[in-house]
Amino acid sequence: MRLYERIMELAFTRLIFYPSNEVYGATAGFYDFGPVGILIKKKIIEEWRKTFIKKYGFYEVEGSIVTPEIVLKASGHVDEFTDPVVECQNCRAKIRADKLLEEKGITFEGLDDIKEKIKDVKCPRCGKPLGDNVYLINLMFPTNIGYDGLKAFLRPETAQSIFTSFIRNFRNLGGKLPLIIAQVGKSFRNEISPRQALVRLREFTQMEIEYFFDPEKQNDEVLYNEVKNKRFRIKLRGEDNPRFITVEKFKEKVMNNDAMAFFLAREWEFYTSLGLNPERMWFRHLSEEETPHYSKGNIDLEVETSYGIVEIAGNAYRTDYDLRRHQEFSKKSFEVNIGKKFIPHVVEASMGVERLFFCLLEHSYRPKTKEKEWEWFDLNPRIAPYEVAVYPLVKKDGLSDIGKSIAKSLREEFDVYYRETGSIGRRYAKADEIGVPYAITIDYQTKEDNTVTIRYRNDGKQERVSINNLVDKIKQNLKEGKRKVE
């Protein structure tokens, strides 16, 4: 069984995530997060907020999901947010044409070239030649607003509401640049053939930051000083292998923009600190052919998984394209006047939650060993679904009452996983399997000296701690990221 298949099986049975509405057969591209998974997801988002928003005093907004057509006409999504589809002439299956060619190692340029090269490719469903019935479809979910049927779409990205409200936020947040605004929220893309679990979804969560600045002032001393001594791994244009590069070298070789350098350095730290393997990830500077016409440079973060290479973050110098387009379509000015009039430029850092979630599961997965006879996830304690599990050794002799009391008090500070049935070994295994870093056992000694046992997930070692010191002990372990007894 391939790793991603095992991850999926564990995710379903351990209530991490599972197909939406599966009693009706489930629709591809939609997943629900269960009681375990939702805690991990919320903690990933909160870690992002701590790292990128709270620490620097950036601003956060929440935009509407339903977006009028005119907004997405201005952004280019109505006309350009398309994928090529081939319809099999035999079984009428609709398949993403460009992805199918890529999977078979066939290169192409443009729609006409796709039509020519795919016609003799066999349909993955019926095995007959596909033919050249290739056409473009828009990837947005359409809807209508009100009884008059104003055309709208579910937003394909969170960024546009930040752009359309830029002037209001700029005027009321001091009228100064740079201005940094962030958003976490759902986006929707009507993928043709979604697959690969959380890697390709029709409904997903984005964490995006838009950095608005004067294009004549590419330097931001405050941000640069935060990262000037950092380095990260990157594939430069024309190079096949990633290498580590300093922030200074990045500015010299790739892009002399402090905001872009800042986001890359901070993203590298963020992702590796959460648990991604730095030897299995890198930034990639997209080629000129891959870079949108309005961008001065796009840099993606790619991760090795059992599915293949997965992009989990995109960074782009979007110039003034978005604000200029909204000015053109809305007939409202998006210029600022700070000694001169101009439309600000934007550097964007966009990070996907679900793809990161899946990559973290893969990179933290640990198989069975002689020492530990069950699979488990070595999740960073900061994003573990429950910080601590609480187990009375047995239900009788008052141990259950003590366990419930301890669990109740701990819930004021932590997410607590409580179980009082089954063998203690199996209960340890259940907690390990979902990544709980610490387990508290209440035994007969607890009644005598008011102490409990803390068991550490990674090595199974234990130590006695006074109930009175339990909260402080767990907090200290979490602060240090402690996963085993040293």
Key features?
486 residues; alpha+beta; BirA Bifunctional Protein, domain 2; Rossmann fold; 3 domains; 9-stranded mixed β-sheet; 34% helix; 27% strand
Describe this protein's structure.
This protein is of the alpha+beta class. It folds into three domains: about 5-80 and about 145-360, BirA Bifunctional Protein, domain 2 (2-Layer Sandwich); about 80-140, no CATH class; about 370-480, 3-Layer(aba) Sandwich (Rossmann fold). The chain is about 35% helix and about 25% strand. It contains 17 helices and 26 strands. The protein has a nine-stranded mixed β-sheet with strand order 3-10-11-19-16-15-14-12-13. Strands 23-22-24-25-26 form a five-stranded mixed β-sheet, sandwiched between helices. A hairpin with a 4-residue loop joins strand 8 (about 140-145) and strand 9 (about 150-155). Helix 3 packs across helix 12 (about 320-330).
